[in-house]
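Title: [Solved] 5,10-methylenetetrahydrofolate reductase 3D structure

Original question kept below for reference.
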Amino acid sequence: MSLLPFFKTKEPQASAVNPAIEALLRDYSIEVMPRTAEKVENFRDLLPQGTRVYIAHIEGTPIADMVATARRLAMDGYKVMPHFPARIIKDRATLADWIARYQGEAGVDQALLLAGGVAQPHGDFESSMQLMESGLFGDFKRLHVAGHPEGNRDIDHDGSDTNVMAALRWKQKFSETSDAQMALATQFAFEAGPIIAWADALRDAGITIPVHIGIAGPAKLQTLIKFAIACGVGPSLKVLQKRAMDVTKLLLPYEPTEVVAQLAAHKAANPDFNITHVHFFPLGGIKTNAQWAIDNGGASALPASQR
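Solution (posted by the thread starter after getting help):
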């Protein structure tokens, strides 16, 4: 059922939306997988036209399914950003084939380049830097790379940020010579304070690539804890664990209102803050996440004819 009438009934209540949150949610992005996208009858009922939609490439997903999802979203008027996980790409010929299919069938001109979650590379590539060095993304308008507000023990086994920061400095230099616009799309976290400290540390280190902060969308608490552990979320996991100990909150769905509000307030007070966008991981479902965004001002990017 279309949600378009819903937008009309909600519009008079726009004054109730926190303006700082609304500003931070402007041009937010969201992530889907082919199998989750199949469950959405009509993305236009949920997401503003022009929303950037990342397509996560999980190991084992056929490239044909990825491209078909990209084509559908592009035809519906969305900016499509497929993942290119280096460690599951066999060789340069495979990478070139994927790019050609995305460009030829879906008009893709932006990508998220990342190492990928598998421990051992399946072929010639191990890192996003090698993908950038391939030269095959030369005509892409936008390239995003991964950021880790709480570190990444797959990269820095000792818990430091030595290797992560070295990689970011390399990517910063690349951004200064590339024609593509770049951004850091980060893993999700649940505490604003450490996120702010991390973003400020990047700026102090000379990393000026804009940050699109990862935020976990509304979900059952048990679901969120499971994903957080699987994705290697760091110290902020204790926010969920503390909530799980409160019987009155255990059965209530988690919503990212608090962390988003705190980040939005900091952004409003510090306009040069390098977190520029929100990127949602819809762990509780695309529809649920999209509705939360709408309720908090994320529908503001919709053309007037669609409100």
